[in-house]
């Protein structure tokens, strides 16, 4: 016992104490709560500068900053922007903690029509649409709702659709080490619809294929067929 106790850190605690595992989980949760409150404090401390910046932008656009409807707009816009970019503070590890299960399932798993809202990093206006994800497990599966959370981590940032697609695929790939991952995103970009070319109905489709989806055309086709069907 002494030999074990003299080992430092979490591993030793785990070996010494039959309740060690749950304590470790509680520790991890406490750590996350701590990070969340630190993040909230940081967001708060940045609000005045963001608010001032939005006041400046609106004034330079010719707005009367004393008119009633705009009185709290800079603050609201600042908070909205912090929310829309909160994915920078989140990681796949945070989300998947406790949600990866050992499972002898090696058939394709598909979750389609995941809603996605993001901001185009070139114009700071929204692009949004649907994400379809497929993966072939390699002894590990993840709670299905977590795939939507992974999409959120990367979409709540300033993005381009191509990078978003790749980041979602790589995030899943690194976390689950599956035999393959396929991600397809269909989106409309407000920067195309509201300005410039004003193509009302144009949709942009991007895809990332990893592992067997890349190597085996039949697997890829099966995913594309299943993800497009209603
Ligand atoms: Zn754009």
TrEMBL record:
Pfam families: GTP_cyclohydroI. It is an enzyme of class 3 (hydrolase). Pathway: Cofactor biosynthesis; 7,8-dihydroneopterin triphosphate biosynthesis; 7,8-dihydroneopterin triphosphate from GTP: step 1/1. Its EC number is 3.5.4.16. Keywords: GTP-binding, Hydrolase, Nucleotide-binding, Tetrahydrobiopterin biosynthesis. Gene3D superfamilies: 1.10.286.10, 3.30.1130.10. One of its GO terms (cellular component) is cytoplasm. It catalyses: GTP + H2O = 7,8-dihydroneopterin 3'-triphosphate + formate + H(+). Residues 51-226 form the GTP cyclohydrolase I domain. CDD domains: GTP_cyclohydro1. InterPro entries: GTP-CH-I_C/QueF, GTP-CH-I_N, GTP_CycHdrlase_I, GTP_CycHdrlase_I_CS, GTP_CycHdrlase_I_dom. GO terms for biological process: tetrahydrobiopterin biosynthetic process; tetrahydrofolate biosynthetic process; xanthophore differentiation. Belongs to the GTP cyclohydrolase I family. PANTHER family: GTP CYCLOHYDROLASE 1 (PTHR11109:SF6), GTP CYCLOHYDROLASE I (PTHR11109). This is GTP cyclohydrolase 1.
